């Protein structure tokens, strides 16, 4: 049963992260001609485009992608409920879906920041993936850099954002218990 749980969790979480990445890319106004951006758009268009016909964007926010993220997370929680407990509870599925979206969003931001930091040490010149990670994270890092400028070539803004995110994540989890 652990293998089945792992498989369900992994499949849903991977697709959920791609949907959240699409939302984040639109929010950050990432270059959609970048090959990485194109891959994310192609991987999610089959589900986002029909939703966009029913759910319009609002104030530059891709509401359809957010709704899809909630649907994917709620479906994941529902499938896990049905497979492992044999019953379904709509309220638990909705709350579990919302918490799953929040947890995966925190995880996605964390990993994108870590990957960006690692790529900054390794990549020389232009790299499409590094460009996307930079465009995604700059809106988060720029306000921190205004307060704490780079010290002798060492940019602490990523570390500050990571610590702040971990604090928010613990705060949300403390609130839930």
TrEMBL record:
It comes from the Bacteria. The chain crosses the membrane at residues 5-25, 147-168. Keywords: Membrane, Transmembrane, Transmembrane helix. InterPro entries: CCB3/YggT. Belongs to the YggT family. This is YggT family protein. It comes from Pseudoalteromonas obscura.
């Amino acid at each position: 049963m652990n293998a089945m749980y792992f498989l369900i969790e992994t499949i849903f979480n991977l697709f959920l992260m791609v949907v959240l990445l699409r939302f984040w890319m639109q929010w950050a106004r990432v270059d959609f001609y970048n090959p990485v951006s194109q891959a994310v758009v192609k991987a999610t268009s089959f589900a986002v485009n029909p939703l966009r016909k029913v759910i319009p964007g609002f104030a530059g926010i891709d509401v359809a992608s957010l709704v899809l993220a909630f649907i994917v997370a709620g479906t994941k929680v529902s499938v896990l409920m049905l497979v492992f407990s044999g019953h379904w509870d709509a309220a638990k599925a909705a709350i579990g879906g919302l918490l799953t979206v929040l947890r995966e969003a925190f995880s996605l931001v964390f990993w994108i920041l870590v990957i960006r930091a690692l790529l900054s040490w390794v990549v020389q010149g232009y790299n499409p993936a590094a460009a996307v990670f930079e465009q995604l994270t700059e809106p988060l890092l720029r306000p921190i850099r205004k307060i704490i400028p780079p010290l002798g070539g060492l940019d602490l803004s990523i570390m500050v954002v990571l610590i702040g995110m971990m604090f928010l994540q613990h705060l949300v989890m403390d609130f839930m218990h």
